[in-house]
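ok posting inputs for the zinc ion job
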Amino acid sequence: MITEQVSTPPQGEPAGAARLEGQPAQSRRAQPYSLRQVADDYGRLAWSDNTEKEERRLRELGELAPADATTVLDVGCGDGQLLGRLGDRPLRIGCDISPGALALCPFPAVRAALPDLPFPDGSFELVTCVEVLEHLPDWLQVASCAELMRVSARYVLVAVPNQESLPAGAAKCGACGAAYHKWGHLQSYNGPRLRRLFPGWTCRWCRPLGPRDTRTAPAWMTRLRHAFAIWQQGGSASCPHCGSCEQVAMPSTLAARAVRKLTSVYHHQFVRAQSPWIAALFVRPPSDVSGGQSP
Ligand SMILES: [Zn+2]
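and the output
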């Protein structure tokens, strides 16, 4: 069932951009992203306009997906690109919150959102969930992963950004001044954190995904850039606090240009490059009979 609000946060739980620095005090009263806002933000994506590394991610995921799973559900399927890379399997279906994305998906797909998937227990041999979990607030993490495990009879394949610095990805709203992640990311993961979200299941592998070309900015660098009003530009997310898509422009002062140049040089010279994503395959243990049969 689709509801307009993702969920009601626990008392005192800050909203969407909770972990970002530089927020004005009033942002602590802000609301979480609604499903409608997330769906609208997705609607601005140029779906077919993949970068080279996104193409590589899709190719690697297609190769890593268990070949013996005949039925697949892709949660957050977008326009169905991952389903298209999973080979010829008897059943490939998707679900997504964005009507615009579903309209582009060439596979059977329904509108649904975590943590409520409209399928019986154990409906699919493989459930994939790529570039989704990082968009969910803290209070939906455990329930959403439990839902992925519930509808899977055998495998859950997930992929998320690799040790991302959320403050480094922050844009600043031009309307209300709030800082928020430019892609709407609310979570940062490493392998151990990802594994903890699937308790009781066996992690068959957990590995980097994509080319080693991404660098996580150190906290001091991000603080320095923000001190000089240097924020990220672009992305797909709107401001979770006021809904505006307007962003504070890059400052053109000499000092700001110098800081931007120096931090950029340091970033590329001295920060270790890593893969932009991590992927993990979780397997239902043989003793667990709660999973149902494939349709
Ligand atoms: Zn705003």
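notes: Residues 25-164+185-212+276-283 form a domain with the Rossmann fold fold (CATH 3.40.50.150). The first strand starts at residue 71 and ends at 75.
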